[in-house]
């Protein structure tokens, strides 16, 4: 298998790391039992602003396999978003556009397989696969990131690949205040601001934290597409070239707050966060019938006459708001500890898209023609949840925990469209306009058409035992999840209800041995169907020439999983670890042909056939993960920190065309870096290098292979006294490109026999990005 072909790299990584770092265990042998993930006092603003020490990956002391990264692990490379921060942790890949990090793919799997939590709670997002884009969370709000490799009965079971928990700063995290200001310079000369203000301290009987962040967002992408058609003998023949500029320009506004009251037995906390994205995505593309050069509009249909085929413009105006409010009460009394949590979260997504195309390759004698379409789409997703659990001491070292979870989710989608079209009475394009949008007039107000309304009610119960016996700690429990879904398709005027429930057992064991520890975990998890698969409407020619029909009776995918790992303490703060994992996924959702009662494929409305997502088949996911975080004190370099991780990933699933990986799973991802502190002069500098392997995806009528260039980031900082730090950061310094190769087919039959319709090569770049940021504590 491909996985084992990479194991030599992992073995070499481990051997080198052990050779350099194992002697460090003698430095602070008596610190092995410290829980470095816990802090008893809030950090002062000066500690956050002026990092005197290098941040390392922490060890979690619970039985679950959890990797813990505090903010000081990420901050020096000035990540803009939570997604950017996660580029330095194991097994997280992205299929995002270049210099963007939105949907995390833990273990390389589709974002829908990863559970994203904010402060331990699920949050809604705009994506139909239920995933949440982490580029919506400014990195400045983060206190800690937890990578939870296996599941627990404590959390909802939507975590086939694992869980990423983003802990925002709360009222116990900061004492004092600081301001942040700076600028971000992009490859085309655009300068964007980054501003922040944060304060934490005592207020009345409790503590308060407030924070505000303004983040300029920009991405000046350049794309090149080369398309080839089939010459009739399955050989590629050049068809056309597309040059495209794609500029994403916007601003993110973020606010968060927390108020905590504590006594010897009771803790009360109120928290909230709000993120707004105001963004415009402008694309301008020119399609030519030559592989190089920029000739003017075509004058005839003569294939030997070079020219501009189309001039297109697209503008997406994006306005998104994401907010959440939570309340928590924890009370210890004679019968144990009771915790109650309430959470209300909402995501509003409004996208107005205008697409205008001017076509010059019309029939001989006709004037150029243009067409423009305005599409307004709105998604409204709201979740209300309550959780209650009670922890009862059974003995000195064993607890029993029982709890429940209730969630009501409502998601409404509507869309509106209107069109214009016309022609030119002259082929001299330059006399008319600089852009196709200058041709269109005012659109008529489109009437909003409600597409669907989805209501999902969850009722969960769970129970678990947990024990801590010194060198051995463990947890074992079961969660029962019951879901009732009601889908209203307002186009088809149809209402469909679907109920399902499942038991999700889980268990984890940690065994300490000397300076190391073994962890073993197993769990049953699920992935609920994505929303656009549930609505029963039929979309004509949605997949090539084939129609798409939703399936409201889809069941969740279910998986059995196991993780087995070992990690070793290196001095006081260092850690080296290795982990192997396996997932067996059942009831896999794949697109399948719809047959009538006689076993004949149902024909599409405009040709082709009807395809529908169905629970068919199964798949396996497996891999090995290495990570290292330590200083070089054992060779006399305590102010030098080294970091690195390598994840070798593989999977297997059968579709109608044979065996493949899970779609778009990279075969490996690694990064390594170094940070050097110079305490006497108040200077630090460092670099990190990251590379993600290729990914292959196959759906009906299309296949794509994606590769990424390497990413190099460098920072230099100067500390002034105890209150001020200025930091310069360069990212994407190797100008890494994203490249995609598409195989496209007219039908499933053509895909089976490899009769290509079109072959396309696409690449995009955005150039290096430079930041200059200062922080001042008060």
UniProtKB/TrEMBL annotation:
- The keyword rRNA processing appears for this protein: no
Major location, coarse class? membrane
Q: Which organism is it from?
A: Croceibacterium selenioxidans
Per UniProt, the keywords (alphabetical) are: Cell outer membrane, Membrane, Signal, TonB box
**Which interval of the chain is the signal sequence?**
1-26
Q: Which Gene3D superfamilies match?
A: TonB-dependent receptor, beta-barrel domain, TonB-dependent receptor, plug domain
Which family is this sequence assigned to? Belongs to the TonB-dependent receptor family.
Source organism's superkingdom? Bacteria
Q: Could you confirm whether the keyword Transferase appears in this record?
A: no
> In the record, what lineage is assigned to the organism producing the protein?
Bacteria, Pseudomonadati, Pseudomonadota, Alphaproteobacteria, Sphingomonadales
Give compartment(s).
Answer: Cell outer membrane
In residue numbers, the region (Disordered) covers 227-246
Q: Which residues form the TonB-dependent receptor-like beta-barrel domain?
A: 317-708
Q: What is the name attached to this protein's record?
A: Outer membrane beta-barrel protein
Location of the TonB-dependent receptor plug domain: 62-163
């Amino acid at each position: 298998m491909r996985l084992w072909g990479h194991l030599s790299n992992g073995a070499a990584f481990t051997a080198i790391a052990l050779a350099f770092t194992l002697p460090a265990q003698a430095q602070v042998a008596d610190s092995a039992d410290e829980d470095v993930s816990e802090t008893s006092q809030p950090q002062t603003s000066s500690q956050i602003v002026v990092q005197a020490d290098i941040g390392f990956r922490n060890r979690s002391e619970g039985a679950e396999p959890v990797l813990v990264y505090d903010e000081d692990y990420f901050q020096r490379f000035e990540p803009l978003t939570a997604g950017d921060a996660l580029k330095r942790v194991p097994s997280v890949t992205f299929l995002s556009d270049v210099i963007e990090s939105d949907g995390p793919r833990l273990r390389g799997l589709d974002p829908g397989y990863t559970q994203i939590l904010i402060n331990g709670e699920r949050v809604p997002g705009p994506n139909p696969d239920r995933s949440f884009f982490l580029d919506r969370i400014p990195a400045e709000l983060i206190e800690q990131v937890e990578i939870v490799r296996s599941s627990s009965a404590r959390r909802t079971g939507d975590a086939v690949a694992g869980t990423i928990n983003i802990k925002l700063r709360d009222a116990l995290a900061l004492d004092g205040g600081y301001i942040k200001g700076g600028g971000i310079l992009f490859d085309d000369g655009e300068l964007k601001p980054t501003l922040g203000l944060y304060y934490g301290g005592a207020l009345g009987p409790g503590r308060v934290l407030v924070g505000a962040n303004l983040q300029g967002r920009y991405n000046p992408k350049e794309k090149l597409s080369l398309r080839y058609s089939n010459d009739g003998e399955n050989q590629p023949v050049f068809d056309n070239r597309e040059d495209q500029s794609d500029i994403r320009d916007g601003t993110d506004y973020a606010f968060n707050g927390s108020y905590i009251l504590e006594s010897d037995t009771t803790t009360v906390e109120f928290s909230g966060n709000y993120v707004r994205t105001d963004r415009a995505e402008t694309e301008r593309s020119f399609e030519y019938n030559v592989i190089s050069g920029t000739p003017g509009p075509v004058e005839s249909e003569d294939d030997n006459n070079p020219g501009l085929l189309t001039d297109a413009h697209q503008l997406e105006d994006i306005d998104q708001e994401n907010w959440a409010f939570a309340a928590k009460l924890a009370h210890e009394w004679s019968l144990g500890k009771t915790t109650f949590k309430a959470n209300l979260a909402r995501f509003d997504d409004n996208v107005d898209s205008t697409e205008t195309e001017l076509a010059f390759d019309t029939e001989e004698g006709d004037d150029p023609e243009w067409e423009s379409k305005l599409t307004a789409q709105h998604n409204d997703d709201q979740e209300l949840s309550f959780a209650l659990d009670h922890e009862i001491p059974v003995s000195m070292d064993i607890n029993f925990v029982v709890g429940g979870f209730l969630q009501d989710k409502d998601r409404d989608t509507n869309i509106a469209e209107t069109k214009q079209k016309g022609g030119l009475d002259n082929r001299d394009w330059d006399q008319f306009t600089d852009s196709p949008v200058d041709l269109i007039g005012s659109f008529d107000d489109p009437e909003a058409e409600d597409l669907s309304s989805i209501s999902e009610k969850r009722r969960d119960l769970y129970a678990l035992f947990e024990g801590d016996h010194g060198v051995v700690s463990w947890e074992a429990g079961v969660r029962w999840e019951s879901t009732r879904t009601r889908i209203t398709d307002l186009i088809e005027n149809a209402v469909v209800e679907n109920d399902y429930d499942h038991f999700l057992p889980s268990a984890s064991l940690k065994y300490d041995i000397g300076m190391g520890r073994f962890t073993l975990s197993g769990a049953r998890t699920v992935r609920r169907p994505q929303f656009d698969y549930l609505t029963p409407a039929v979309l004509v020619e949605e997949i090539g020439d084939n129609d798409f029909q939703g399936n409201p009776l889809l069941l969740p995918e279910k998986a059995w999983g196991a993780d087995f790992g070992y990690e070793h303490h290196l001095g006081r703060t260092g850690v080296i670890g290795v982990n192997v994992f396996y997932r067996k996924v059942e009831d896999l959702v794949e697109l399948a042909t719809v047959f009538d009662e006689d076993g004949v494929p149902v024909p599409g409305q405009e040709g082709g056939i009807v395809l529908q997502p169905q629970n068919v088949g199964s798949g396996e996911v497996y891999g090995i993960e290495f990570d290292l975080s330590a200083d070089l004190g054992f060779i006399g370099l305590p102010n030098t920190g080294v970091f690195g991780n390598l994840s070798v990933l593989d999977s297997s699933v059968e579709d109608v065309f044979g065996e493949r990986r899970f779609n778009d799973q990279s075969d490996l991802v690694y990064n390594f870096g170094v940070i050097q502190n110079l305490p006497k002069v108040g200077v630090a500098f460092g670099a990190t290098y990251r590379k993600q392997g290729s990914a292959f995806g196959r759906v009906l009528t299309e296949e794509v292979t994606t590769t990424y260039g390497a990413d190099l980031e460098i920072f230099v900082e100067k500390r002034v006294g105890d209150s001020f730090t200025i930091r310069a950061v360069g990212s994407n310094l190797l100008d890494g490109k994203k490249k995609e190769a598409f195989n496209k087919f007219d039908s499933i039959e053509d895909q089976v026999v490899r009769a290509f319709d079109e072959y396309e090569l696409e690449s995009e770049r955005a150039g290096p990005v430079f930041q200059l940021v200062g922080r001042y504590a008060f």
